[in-house]
Amino acid sequence: MFIQRRLLSFITFTNWLIFGAVTACGFILTSRPFACGILAGGLIVTINFHLLHRSLKHALTPPHIARTREVLIKYYIRFLVTAALIYVLIADHYVNPLGLILGLSVVVTSIFIATLNEIRKIIFRRAA
């Protein structure tokens, strides 16, 4: 259980760190629509990640174990709201689609970094 909490806190911290850095660089180095795409995509994916964590934590806590149907309904509602939001952002030209994709990759990037970090720890633990 300790490893999962440590990984989750690392991923959460890295999410916000990457999101802040990429958004700041976007506003400094690129056009406004591209930077707004990064900001919108990063917020969408980071908020979704936190809501998924909260939903699963509540569903899997022993006194209130939820049924699979409840968890899936919440997941699909969140998915549909996210899809509608992304559609509106792109269709009405509020953001640049490439900036949005870059912003949406924040969580994947932080999970990838966390994986590489754990692999590094395992390799150096065996080498020592």
> What percentage of amino acids are in beta strands?
under 5%
The CA-CA distance between the termini, in Å, is: 25 Å
Helix content: over 70%
Overall domain count: 1
Radius of gyration: 17 Å
How many runs of DSSP E, i.e. beta strands?
0
Report on this model:
- α1 (2-29) runs antiparallel to α2 (32-60), α2 runs antiparallel to α3 (68-91) and α2 runs parallel beside α4 (97-104).
- The protein has one domain (10-122).
- The protein is mainly α and 128 residues long.
- It contains 5 helices and no strands.
For this entry, give a set of tags.
flat, 128 residues, 87% helix
Topology:
Blueprint (H helix, E strand, L loop, with lengths): L1 H28 L2 H29 L7 H24 L5 H8 L1 H22 L1
Helix pairs in contact: 1-2, 1-5, 2-3, 2-4
Could you give a short description of this structure?
The protein has 128 residues and is mostly helical. It is 87% helix and 0% strand. The longest helix is centred in the middle third of the chain and has 29 residues.
